[in-house]
Design a protein that fits this description.
Radius of gyration: 26 Å
Distance between the termini: 71 Å
Largest sheet: 8 strands, mixed
Strand order of the largest sheet: 1-10-9-2-3-6-5-4
Bound molecules: adenosine-5'-triphosphate, magnesium ion
Helix content: 40-55%
Number of helices: 20
CATH superfamily of one domain: Beta Polymerase, domain 2
């Protein structure tokens, strides 16, 4: 590790004021401090406050052991087996409190470094605050806001990198990426989110080491993929992931389709989906992984569909078969929990039903619990040039109509039946 002396930035020289910190995190910091422990805010919370951004959450680091932390709080749960963390619960807000730890010798205990979920277990020994700083991933993620004097403690040169908008890994980049390849995804995520530049060294290193992600447990990659695509800058992140060859280990089937570049459907459809997701995140609207995976895997699914010219094979059945195949293959790389893969497959298998605008089935589609998501997906396909605008407009418009008008509409194009008496004046096409 390079020699780096401690830089202490006193309260008047930085922008973090207590009014910006969640009151619950402050309670935790103050309580630990009053009990005689060292207590600091660390990680993304400090980084984001210094950048004038709103932190996603506030993590606390302390020299109190998990047991000692628990003794201070009634509303406290210890989690994790090998390395225990404390969660202090305040209604829906959870403040995570971790004991300072050091990176243990990388050569010892090789087999047990990663558990079944692919979580890193190497850093499982308690340590000093300085050791705690050195085991973190990027310098800007290793700044400590110390509640005892409101100063910022920088052991790794993070302040300078923060001011320069630079993402620099702590220690030897190749060793740190080999130790935990997920750090490559984190590098891209932070670069995209913060608008930071990656060290030229990292830019060259990541494409070379990207295949190491094939060894990471799919469940852990699922968590990372959510952060990558639901963080508000999904479109930019997607382009960066592809640029650095990190997309392939996550979504090999999708990458194979994108690499062919024969038609631009998949790229356009995915870009539109991610741009939509970003817009929803910006507006504070909910986003679902089902929709994101539906867009990412739509084209691969279509390639897995059996031929439609087989007898008795409907398009819906073919989509169901293709969907099952794609989910099985994708799960080897990034797992998709059932509660999202089922709605994803439903979004897909509802697509052929939009072709049918007549009769009771059309009305039933409007009432389907997954109608809204499937309709949004239809719009994506339309934006990608895959279905006709006119069809989308029809489904857009019918939703704005009252039930009787809808019923009339779905019978409009049918062979004439006897008109019922007392029928209201028919609406014009765009009435
Ligand atoms: P976010 O805004 O996404 O929460 P964050 O920096 O807080 O960003 P977390 O995943 O919440 O990211 O992790 C908290 C801190 O733990 C990080 O800032 C970093 O110091 C450390 N950390 C997390 N993951 C790793 C890792 N894989 N290797 C080393 N340090 C890590
Ligand atoms: Mg965080």
């Amino acid at each position: 590790m390079s020699a780096q002396s401690l830089n202490i930035i006193p309260r008047p020289e930085h922008g973090i004021s207590r009014s910006l910190i969640s009151p619950n995190a402050l309670k935790v910091l103050n309580r630990l401090n009053q009990a005689g422990f060292r207590a600091c805010l660390v990680g993304g919370g400090v980084r984001d406050l210094l950048l004038g951004r709103e932190p996603k959450d506030f993590d606390v680091a302390t020299d109190a052991t998990p047991e000692q932390i628990r003794q201070q709080f009634r509303n406290c749960r210890l989690i994790g087996r090998r390395f225990r963390l404390a969660h202090v619960l305040f209604g829906r807000e959870v403040i995570e409190v971790a004991t300072f730890r050091a990176a243990s010798d990388p050569d010892e205990d090789d087999e047990t470094q990663v558990n079944d979920a692919g979580r890193l277990l190497r850093d499982n020994v308690y340590g000093s605050i300085e050791e705690d700083a050195w085991r973190r991933d990027f310098t800007v993620n290793a700044l400590y806001y110390d509640i005892s004097d409101f100063s910022i403690r920088d052991y790794v040169g993070g302040m300078e990198d923060l001011e320069a908008g630079r993402l620099r890994i702590i220690g030897d980049p190749e060793a740190r990426f080999r130790e935990d390849p997920v750090r490559m995804l984190r590098a891209v995520r932070f670069a995209a989110k913060l608008g930071f530049t990656l060290d030229p060294e990292l830019q060259a290193l990541i494409p070379r080491l990207a295949p190491l992600l094939h060894d990471i447990a799919p469940a852990r990659l699922y968590e990372e993929v959510l952060k990558l695509f639901h963080g508000g800058v999904a479109l930019n992140t997607f382009e960066m992931l592809r640029h650095y060859h990190l997309f392939e280990p996550l979504f090999p089937l999708t990458e194979a389709v994108l690499a062919e570049e024969e038609n631009h459907f998949p790229h356009t459809l995915i870009s539109h989906a991610l741009a939509n997701t970003d817009a929803r995140v910006a507006e504070g609207k909910p986003v679902t992984p089902a929709f994101m995976f539906a867009a990412l895997l739509w084209e691969p699914m279509r390639r897995e569909m059996p031929d439609l010219d087989q007898p008795d094979m409907s398009e819906i059945q073919a989509i169901q078969i293709g969907g099952a195949r794609v989910v099985t293959q994708q799960a080897r790389h990034v797992s998709i929990p059932k509660r999202f893969s089922l709605p994803m497959r439903e979004i897909w298998s509802l697509q052929p039903r939009f072709q049918r605008r007549q009769g009771r089935r059309a009305l039933q589609l409007l009432e389907h619990p997954r109608f809204r998501a499937a309709y949004d997906f239809l719009l994506l396909r339309c934006a990608a040039g895959e279905v006709e605008q006119e069809l989308c407009d029809w489904w857009t418009e019918i939703q704005t109509q009252a039930p009787e008008a809808r019923a009339e509409r779905v019978t409009a194009g049918r062979p004439r039946k006897r008109r019922r008496p007392r029928r209201r004046k028919p609406r014009s096409e765009h009435g």
